[in-house]
Every structure is written in C-alpha cells, then in structure tokens.
Design a protein that fits this description.
The chain is mainly alpha-helical and 62 residues long. 53% of the residues lie in helices and 0% in strands. The chain contains 3 helices and no strands. It is globular, with a radius of gyration of 11 Å.
C-alpha cells in the first residue's frame, strides 16, 4: 500500500474509526493544531493530500 498516493483510505476501509482517532491525536500533537469534530469527516482523511489540506487550513486559521 502506498499511502502517499492512495485516494480512498476511508472509502476502502484502510482506516477505521479507532485509527482515525489515533491519527487525529498524532496530527494535533505533531502540527500543533486542534482538529474540531466538524473536521473529522471522510473527505479530510481519504488521502494524505486531503489531510495535508486540512492541516494547512487549520494552521492558517490559527
């Protein structure tokens, strides 16, 4: 599995709900952001590119 190019991490069930929660915690810690509950949607976690877009958006919001 090439996570860098995969576009269906959620849709193909590569990530389950517990994995997503752990990922949220890691992203918050590593990027010094808070991911609001409304942002924890499949569209933001289906690919590394989607996650990066969410991270940069949240960093810009401060």
């Amino acid at each position: 599995m090439d996570y860098a190019t995969c576009r269906d991490l959620i849709d193909s069930h590569y990530l389950d709900s517990l994995t997503i929660l752990a990922l949220v915690a890691e992203l918050e810690e590593n990027f010094d952001i808070t991911i609001p509950t409304v942002e924890i949607i499949p569209a933001n976690f289906n690919s590394a590119e989607d996650m990066w877009a969410m991270i940069t958006h949240l960093q810009e919001e401060g």
